[in-house]
């Protein structure tokens, strides 16, 4: 995984990676959870969840990363129990896998040792920081090698997919935490409209100022499509709290978008 290689190059040992379907990132409370592993790595501070092997939509650019640092300090005991159980109930397949690893070494993708684990998800409120760098229409990328492939329908599908991912990500951040949403598209339906959805759906979220601030303001208002569908964007006062990078602006960047949400108390909802 690229992120592991990068971490190794930077000499960072605090990165843990997992393969996970971001649409199933939240683990139900009664199941065993990767929280155990997260707690186990708490002293390391950071956790990275990444999967690079899925493509949601035919046209989408891929690779979601959820980055966070674990805020929960109460589950060390679970970790120990879980680890003990793992030792007791190691299956023949697990033993074979371990033997193979010992024979073959860490593997070429894992310069820090150990393969990337498949994750079954994390308990709600597991992280104090989450980055959802969502798969998107990539309309901000330059040069546009495959221009003209998106339709209104595919753009709306991207937006639907992003909302589903956001619904998961928001559950993973604990109160007092931060959730950052980013895309590399200039399509407001995947940017400002996602922010509108987020703020209207999750009243405990608020837009947080960003630093550094290099990009332009977000789009305020709404857009009515010929089929009658109305896409709501930002409301006055919200535009300066997001960053929209426009490839046609004097700043020499590709197009992308960043929104930073502060997560308030979830109890009042
Ligand atoms: C914009 S890219 C993220 C790029 C990444 N942050 C990086 O710097 O390399 C979006 C990624 O989401 C991944 N993705 C799409 N659907 C996913 C899902 N259901 N679960 C996990 N990852 C998914 C795609 O494979 C793609 O790699």
From TrEMBL:
<feature type="active site" description="Nucleophile">
    <location>
        <position position="184"/>
    </location>
</feature>
<keyword id="KW-0489">Methyltransferase</keyword>
<keyword id="KW-0808">Transferase</keyword>
<dbReference type="InterPro" id="IPR023267">
    <property type="entry name" value="RCMT"/>
</dbReference>
<comment type="similarity">
    <text>Belongs to the class I-like SAM-binding methyltransferase superfamily. RsmB/NOP family.</text>
</comment>
<keyword id="KW-0694">RNA-binding</keyword>
<dbReference type="GO" id="GO:0003723">
    <property type="term" value="F:RNA binding"/>
</dbReference>
<dbReference type="InterPro" id="IPR049560">
    <property type="entry name" value="MeTrfase_RsmB-F_NOP2_cat"/>
</dbReference>
<feature type="binding site">
    <location>
        <position position="133"/>
    </location>
    <ligand>
        <name>S-adenosyl-L-methionine</name>
    </ligand>
</feature>
<dbReference type="Pfam" id="PF01189">
    <property type="entry name" value="Methyltr_RsmB-F"/>
</dbReference>
<dbReference type="GO" id="GO:0008173">
    <property type="term" value="F:RNA methyltransferase activity"/>
</dbReference>
<dbReference type="InterPro" id="IPR029063">
    <property type="entry name" value="SAM-dependent_MTases_sf"/>
</dbReference>
<dbReference type="InterPro" id="IPR018314">
    <property type="entry name" value="RsmB/NOL1/NOP2-like_CS"/>
</dbReference>
<dbReference type="GO" id="GO:0001510">
    <property type="term" value="P:RNA methylation"/>
</dbReference>
<feature type="domain" description="SAM-dependent MTase RsmB/NOP-type">
    <location>
        <begin position="1"/>
        <end position="264"/>
    </location>
</feature>
<protein>
    <submittedName>
        <fullName>NOL1/NOP2/sun family protein isoform 2</fullName>
    </submittedName>
</protein>
<feature type="binding site">
    <location>
        <position position="82"/>
    </location>
    <ligand>
        <name>S-adenosyl-L-methionine</name>
    </ligand>
</feature>
<keyword id="KW-0949">S-adenosyl-L-methionine</keyword>
<dbReference type="InterPro" id="IPR001678">
    <property type="entry name" value="MeTrfase_RsmB-F_NOP2_dom"/>
</dbReference>
